[in-house]
Amino acid sequence: MEDPRGNMEHQPPPSLWPIGFAVGIVCLLVGLIVSWVAAAVGAAIAAVFGFLWARDVVAASRRERPAVPVETDGAPPSARPLPADEGPPAMPEAEPAERFPRSVFLEASTLGLGALIGAIVTLPVLGFAVLPAFLKQGHKDVDLGPIENFPEGQYVVATFVSDAKQGYISRRSAFIRNNGMADGKPSFTCISNRCVHLGCPVQPGGPVFDSKKKEVSSSGHGPVELIPALPAAGFICPCHGGAYDQEGNRIAGPPVRALNRFEFLIKDGHLILAGMYSVSSVSGTGATARIHKYQLAGPGQHIDGPEAWLYPVQPPH
Amino acid sequence: MASKSDRRQHLERAATYPIDWLEERSGLIGGLRYFLFRKVPGDTNWFHTLGSATLTAFLVQLATGVILAMYYKPDPNSAHASIEHITHDVTLGWLVRGMHKWGASVFIILLFLHMGRVFLFGAYKYPRELNWIVGVLLLATALFEGLTGYLLPWDQTSYWATVVAININGTAPFVGPFLASLLRGGAEIGPDTLARFYSLHMLLVPGALIGLITLHLYLVVRLGVTSPPWSDEAAGEGPPEPTKPARAGLVRPRARTAVRGRPTE
Questions:
Q1: Which residues on A lie below 8 Å from B190 (Cβ)?
Q2: Measured in whole angstroms, how far is the alpha carbon of residue B125 from the centre of its chain?
Q3: Please, which pLDDT band fits residue A210 given cuts at 50, 70 and 90?
Q4: Which of A85, A204, A252, B259 is the 20 to 30 A CA-CA neighbour of A92?
Q5: Which of A89, A224, A82 is nearest to A145 (CA)?
Q6: Residues with Cβ < 8 Å from B68, sequence gap 6 or more?
Q7: B168 vs A198: CB contact, 8 Å cut-off?
Q8: Residue A109 class from Cβ within 10 Å (0-12 exposed, 13-18 middle, 19+ buried)?
């Protein structure tokens, strides 16, 4: 049985099942994007071929297990002389000596104390490395200035510093549209400019009137830039071609939902942006729009449908 | 004549004395010999140098990176300015930064070529499976090193590429959102993210790479060089056994222990 090259005995027998299995997986993955039927067919193919493959492997490993010869103390005289590295050892290994309770105690206490000291040193350091990423998160309200700066029915690109302590690195943009009054209250559409595919800044699909730029000083947050825009074609992401309509609904490209929005409130006649939330879709427009609102999720994460089951818990935003 | 040869002997003894002194106390020379000298089949070719080429590229990254760290400032307000300073003001800064920047691509490309060589030569087979696994871990760690390094120039390209990369991590099922927060050091990219990536890039990930490379080399030294598929020559550890046909590829550990452990009757 020994192959002259000597390296065959650890290889499983050649088999075509893995190829079918791989085809099934590919079909399943493509189906996830294209259609559920294709995904189901792919899953079935993968399951069948995976089962056949597993059966082959199990059968092969059963076959390979050599029969263990019954060991006898004295070899029959007709048998060939055993090589020195086979057969029973000439000098049997010593029985493990009896261990004394004291040595067991010392060993256990050394290990235990070592582990305790290690934990005392390691855990705070690990916590310092990991916890700040999840604690003390949360938004700060941003004052965008008097609502008179937002003409009714027109989009304005507002650029602001969302956390004064962090400075320019926390600069964010939002598309703000004054929808006029709804039920006697001012209504605004406040869309975040971060693409919900992978977080690039989406741009208005239409002219941006840089010459009409307005700077508004805002309490504690530095100046806010307001630039009127006419996103006739909605919003478009330069990175991977995601496209949204004027309400932020996805109309093309890889994004999985509609653009995030800001909560807003009016205080002393100023428009204040509060926390963000995620939106699956918006039906209707402007003040009468019906917004399907969800807890804020990261870009690329589904918030509705079965894919949302993949993201059951969100870290604090 | 005799006196000259005496002096020569004297000189030789004086020259070898420090080496002997070191060897007697540390065994380093023997260790170095064990590490560097091993049986290599006669019909290897240039493809067998890809591993050492990758290692060399990594050492270049290590050396240039240490020097760049002397001038770089991992702070959002001065990071890009310090990169400009290195490139335009510091003597030979453009060269060292260029070596580090382009060397990063060379390192990754050589990694893949080395991996391809190992795959096509079947050098991942028994008993080297573990070394293949360590190599795959090395590949992933090296790619992570590339990801963390990409943010450091702190320009538009590196910022938005990192936003996209972190958000791709965020779409991993279940753990993705937490992974993304962990990478950013918070819910949003902020001042901490740059310092975090800098620390990962120059301390944690290189440390992991060095550890994995050590393990990788240990396994290479232990198991020896694979013969090419067309070779009839044995390779690997241990002396060839004259009574048995030469084994291409390797001499298995079982055979080696048999040679070493045979009692003298």
A1: 163, 166, 169-170
A2: 21
A3: very high
A4: B259
A5: A224
A6: B86, B96, B97, B100
A7: yes
A8: exposed
Contact B164, A298 (CB under 8 A): no
Q: Is the pLDDT of residue A252 over 70?
A: yes
* B229 in contact with chain A, both atoms CB, cutoff 8 A: no
Map out the domains of chain A with their CATH numbers: 1-65+100-135 (no CATH), 142-310 (2.102.10.10)
In terms of CA atoms, which chain A residue is nearest residue B193? A133
Task: Tell me: cis bond preceding B127? Omega within 30 of 0 counts.
Answer: yes
In this prediction, residue B264 has a pLDDT band, given cuts at 50, 70 and 90, of: very low
HSE-up of A92 (CA within 13 Å, CB side)?
Answer: 3
Question: Which of B167, B168, B200 to mutate to probe the A interface, most A CBs <10 Å?
Answer: B167
Count of CB atoms situated within 10 Å of the CB of A28: 19
- Per-residue confidence (pLDDT) for residue B254, from 0 to 100: 45
**Which residue among A85, A167, A297 sits closest to B261, beta carbon to beta carbon?**
A85
Residue A57 · residue A86 · CB < 8 Å:
no
Contact A84 B182 (CB under 8 A): no
Which residues of A fall within a CB distance of 8 Å from B247? 4-7
Task: Report residue A54 as tokens.
Answer: 């597993």
Q: Give the whole-angstrom CA distance, residue B49 versus residue B52.
A: 5
Condensed to tens digits (0 to 9), the pLDDT of residues B121-143 reads 999 988 899 999 999 999 999 99
Q: How many CB atoms lie within 10 A of CB A232?
A: 11
Out of A84, A310, A313, whose CB is closest to B263? A84
How far is residue B239's CA from residue B218's CA, in Å, rounded to a whole number?
Answer: 19
Q: Which residues of A touch B184 (CB under 8 A)?
A: 133
Q: Which residue in A200, A239, A314 is closest to B177 by CB distance?
A: A314
A164 touching B (Cβ < 8 Å): no
Omega prior to A69 cis, within 30 of 0: no
- Which residues touch A88 (CB under 8 Å, ≥6 apart)? A71, A73
Place of tokens 């807003």: A264
C-alpha–C-alpha distance, residues B30 and A111, integer Å = 35
Which residues, 6 or more positions from A137, have their beta carbon under 8 angstroms from its beta carbon?
A315, A316, A317, B186, B187
Enumerate the residues of chain B whose CB falls inside 8 A of the CB of residue A314.
177
- Provide mean pLDDT across the span A253-282: 94
Chain A residues near residue B181 by CB distance under 8 angstroms: 133-134, 315
